[in-house]
Amino acid sequence: LWTWAAAVVVVAAAAAAAAAAGQEKRLLVGMTLVPGAASTGAGKSATPLINPLFLHPRSPGRTLPCSPDSLPKALACLDGSPPAYHLHRGSGAGARGWLLQFEGGGWCNDAPSCAARAGTRRGSTRLMSKLEVFSGVLSNDPARNPDFYNWNRVKLRYCDGGSFAGDSEFRNGSSVIYMRGQRIWDAIIADLLTKGLAKAEKG
Ligand SMILES: *[C@@H]1O[C@H](CO)[C@@H](O)[C@H](O)[C@H]1NC(C)=O
């Protein structure tokens, strides 16, 4: 009888927890890959691709040989995968409000540290969660996020290793590392402009 009673208590507790979780339903928002990025196999192959516009960071002006079809890869995360963001659409009075949140995560500082980072979720959208929990200022719950819950809320994924600021590449014959934060920033904003950011009234 004691065992049975204990089991009932456990089940009741689990049900209560499930009910509480239901009230705090998490908002999961899917990843959008940036259009125009890395159309030639980025993220599909571990083989480094060569960019035609590559300029060696330590030898500016020295352009290296290349294959033309790899041009779009100039817009890429450290590992060559396409950049990405998550967007949850606004509605009602917030339909023209836009909140952009940048994912953080420090910098890499040189080829070895950026190469290492390229193999992690900090340097590759291939390795990132494809669903992000939108909480805090990204929440769609008016009680939890009264100021922005019905705005368009965007989380920009951080994969360039240089705070969306760099614009160069490293290549040494065995590795290619893309440091294209500026292009990622420009491409995400350009894409969001077509999705309503151009008509933003609050931001
Ligand atoms: C190229 O650079 C990467 C990253 O620093 C390094 O791991 C690799 O050993 C280098 N390859 C050559 C041939 O120097």
Layout of helices and strands:
Elements: H1 2-23, E1 27-33, E2 84-88, E3 98-102, H2 111-118, E4 131-134, E5 152-156, E6 168-171, E7 176-179, H3 181-194
Parallel strand pairs: 3-5
Antiparallel strand pairs: 1-2, 1-4, 2-5, 6-7
The structure holds 2-acetamido-2-deoxy-beta-D-glucopyranose (NAG).
2-acetamido-2-deoxy-beta-D-glucopyranose binds at residues 111-112, 115, 172-175.
Overall description:
By secondary structure, the chain is an alpha+beta fold. It has one domain (31-37, 49-199). The protein is 22% helix and 17% strand. It has three helices and seven strands. The strands form two sheets. The chain has a five-stranded mixed beta sheet, with no helix packed on it. A hairpin with a 4-residue loop joins strand 6 and strand 7 (176-179). The longest helix has 22 residues, at 2-23. The chain is elongated. The termini are far apart. The site of 2-acetamido-2-deoxy-beta-D-glucopyranose has 7 residues, from helix 2. The site of 2-acetamido-2-deoxy-beta-D-glucopyranose (NAG) has 7 residues, from helix 2.
Q: How many beta-strand elements?
A: 7
Please state the average pLDDT score. 80
Strand content: 15-25%
**Radius of gyration (Å):** 22 Å
Low-confidence stretches: 1-19, 38-71
Report the span from N to C terminus: 62 Å
Ligands present: 2-acetamido-2-deoxy-beta-D-glucopyranose
As a percent range, the share of helical residues equals 10-25%
Shape call: elongated
Q: What profile does the largest beta sheet have? A: 5 strands, mixed
Q: What number of domains?
A: 1
Report the total helices. Answer: 3
Structural class designation: alpha+beta
The succession of helices and strands, N to C, reads HEEEHEEEEH
